[in-house]
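tool=predict chain=A
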Amino acid sequence: MLSTDDPLLLRTTDARGVITLTLNRPQAFNALSEGLLEALQTELNLIARDSTARVVVIAAAGRAFCAGHDLREMRATPSQRYYEGLFAQCGRVMLALQQLEVPVIARVHGVATAAGCQLVAMCDLAVAARDARFAVSGVNLGLFCSTPSVALSRNVSRKAAFEMLVTGGFISAEEALAKGLVNRVVDAARLDAEVESLVASIVSKPRVALAMGKQLFYRQLEMGIEAAYAEAAETMACNMMDRCALDGVQDFLDKKPAKS
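tool=predict ok
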């Protein structure tokens, strides 16, 4: 059993620069308490300054990925000022995931509900076990999942997102795949192997190209099409001047084998 002395968040790093952050409140289905949000923010801030980081994997201990906010903690302090601060804190963590230079992969098993579903949506990529389930279920308690709706509506179609938000119903991993909330669905026994296949593909690519590409990808999504093309053209020109890109293009022209 987890003791009160156990860390809320576990971190491991391998020789490739792949960092795994594991939510570690299994007895609470990894609900996002203030402490866990603070621990996530601290680690994400450190990763943002780490030039050796290549990929971040968000995983979870126990039977669930994340059951959303800690409702007991929320109910203990019923004031609008407190709630505004809590949801702003959560929003900063979610944005920090997107603002990292490196890709972030959600490794999802069990349930991902409310802010837990939001967490999946804010990761750049997501791999789910076949028995995983997803919901933005706050409406069942009289609380519309407004902040999760921001991430959800940027992953799935408007009507699909709105149906999830107003019904609070669960969708399966296969439905999440069809709607665009996750990238891959596999049997639970293959979850780690499938995450690793994505990780291996990513770390084989130049870090600078992925960093520039990720930043551009999210910037242009919020722009009109003309501004997006202008921003993309400038980014691509800067990327082309990087030595990795110049050498890669020359190797292609010279018909040399691609570097792994």
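The first strand starts at residue 9 and ends at 13. The chain has a mean pLDDT of 94.
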